[in-house]
């Protein structure tokens, strides 16, 4: 019962938290005034926008997102250097760009968009399209000898983690 | 020391802006031109940050943020126009 | 201490400028539209990211501390995949008659090449 009251007042608790943090960053100070103003915004905006966004996306294990974030940041750093070297020193004739098809095990739209965003942010791969029924992702790889290996890598490194976070 | 690095970085960012402009003028397909515009927006944000560091003020932060938002929205609007022939249906 | 932080700031500015340059160079150099997409959307995010960290450190060492550069970084990191995806959809749209795309499993078509349902 208290949980239901809480969700009535704050329909999207994470959005409220995000709005408070963004407001404090925008004002660039943490004082009681800014936090209270952020809390007012975080109270009003989710209630006003709730009709457009009626149900909360399921997120059974939000704390795993932190470790996922660090894995992705590390991969971005490493792959950025790799792609920079490829762009600088590999002649175009030896570049082997390939289309990769990744069959998906994820089903929730949030998890799939998160995976697509991760793939695009990690250099060397861009997610281009989703199949019409949402069961496969079309990815373009800049320099991959073996498309199968790229698909296996992405599935092992990101998809399994996202499956644990969103679809436990 | 930081000032010298900032001058060099400004020159380098300006050079990359020119390179993106070459692709904008040359680009054989519409997507290339949109991509070049997107890159130019990112370079402009970098330039604004460098100028803000050089003059030691924080007031350029807002313009960098607005550039980021406008750049994103204009990229999406241009792509949508190419894809659907209309931006808001 | 200030000297070490200054050197760190200079190194970060150098990394940022280098990656921005590589991004734009890749935009010119790479041969086909889809691989051109790889250069800027990536190198630019890391380039601007490290410039913003340098700006934050600079403000922290020489002026008042400020962290709101994180906001620009977060916004760029959230919006980069979306604009990249839109641009690649544009590329796919402009060459929808080509046949070198691999087919998805189970013989369904890709979302942007699927026949449009008019209802």
Could you describe the 3D structure shown?
The complex is a heterotrimer of chains A (168), B (89) and C (119). Chain A starts with a helix and ends with a helix. Helix content of chain A is 60%, strand content 11%. In chain A, helix 5 (109-121) packs across helix 6. Chain A is built from six helices and three strands; from the N terminus they run H-H-H-H-E-H-E-E-H. Chain B is mostly helical. Chain B has one domain (2-84). Chain B is flat and about 50 Å long. Chain B starts with a helix and ends in a 5-residue tail after the last helix. The mean pLDDT of chain B is 86. Chain C has one domain. Chains in contact: A-C, B-C. The interface between B and C is large, with 47 and 53 residues.
Helix and strand run of chain B: HHH
Quaternary structure of the protein: heterotrimer
CATH topology of the largest domain in chain A: Alpha-Beta Plaits
Q: Low-confidence spans of chain A: pLDDT under 50, at least 5 residues? A: none
Gyration radius from CA atoms of chain A, angstroms: 20 Å
Gyration radius of chain B, in Å: 15 Å
Number of strands of chain A: 3
Q: Topology of this structure?
A:
The complex is a heterotrimer of chains A (168), B (89) and C (119).
Chain A: H1 2-9, H2 13-27, H3 32-49, H4 64-89, E1 98-103, H5 109-121, E2 125-130, E3 136-141, H6 147-166
Antiparallel strand pairs in A: 1-3, 2-3
Chain B: H1 2-26, H2 30-55, H3 60-84
Chain C: H1 2-29, H2 33-36, H3 38-62, H4 69-94
């Amino acid at each position: 019962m208290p949980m239901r009251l809480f969700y009535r007042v704050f329909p999207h608790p994470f959005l409220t938290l995000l709005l408070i943090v963004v407001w404090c960053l925008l004002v660039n100070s943490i004082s009681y005034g800014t936090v209270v103003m952020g809390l007012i915004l975080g109270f009003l905006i989710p209630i006003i926008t709730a009709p457009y966004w009626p149900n909360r996306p399921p997120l059974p294990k939000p704390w795993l997102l932190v470790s996922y974030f660090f894995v992705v940041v590390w991969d971005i750093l490493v792959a950025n250097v790799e792609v920079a070297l490829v762009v600088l020193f590999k002649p175009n004739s030896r570049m082997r760009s390939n289309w990769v098809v990744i069959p998906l095990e994820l089903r929730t739209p949030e998890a799939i968009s998160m995976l697509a965003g991760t793939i695009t942010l990690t250099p060397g791969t861009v997610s281009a399209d989703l199949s019409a029924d949402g069961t496969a992702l079309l990815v373009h790889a800049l320099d991959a000898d073996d498309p199968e290996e790229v698909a296996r890598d992405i599935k092992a490194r990101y998809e399994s983690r996202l499956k644990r976070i969103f679809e436990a | 020391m930081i000032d010298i690095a900032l001058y060099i970085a400004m020159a380098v960012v300006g050079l990359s802006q020119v390179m993106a402009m070459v692709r904008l003028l040359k680009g054989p397909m519409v997507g290339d031109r949109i991509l070049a515009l997107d890159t130019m927006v990112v370079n402009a944000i970098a330039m604004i940050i460098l100028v803000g560091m050089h003059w030691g003020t924080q007031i350029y932060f807002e313009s960098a943020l607005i550039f980021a938002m406008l750049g994103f929205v204009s990229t999406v609007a241009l792509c949508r126009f190419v894809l659907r022939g209309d931006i808001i249906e | 201490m200030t000297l070490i932080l200054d050197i760190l700031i200079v190194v970060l500015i150098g990394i940022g400028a280098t990656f921005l340059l590589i991004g734009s160079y890749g935009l010119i150099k790479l041969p086909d539209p889809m691989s051109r997409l790889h250069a800027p959307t990536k190198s630019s995010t890391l380039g601007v990211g490290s410039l913003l960290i340098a700006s934050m450190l600079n403000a922290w060492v020489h002026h008042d501390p400020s962290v709101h550069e994180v906001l620009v970084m977060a916004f760029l990191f959230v919006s980069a995949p979306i604009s990249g995806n839109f641009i690649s959809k544009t590329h796919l749209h402009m060459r929808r008659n080509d046949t070198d795309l691999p087919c998805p499993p189970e013989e369904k078509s890709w979302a942007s090449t699927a026949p449009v349902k008019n209802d």
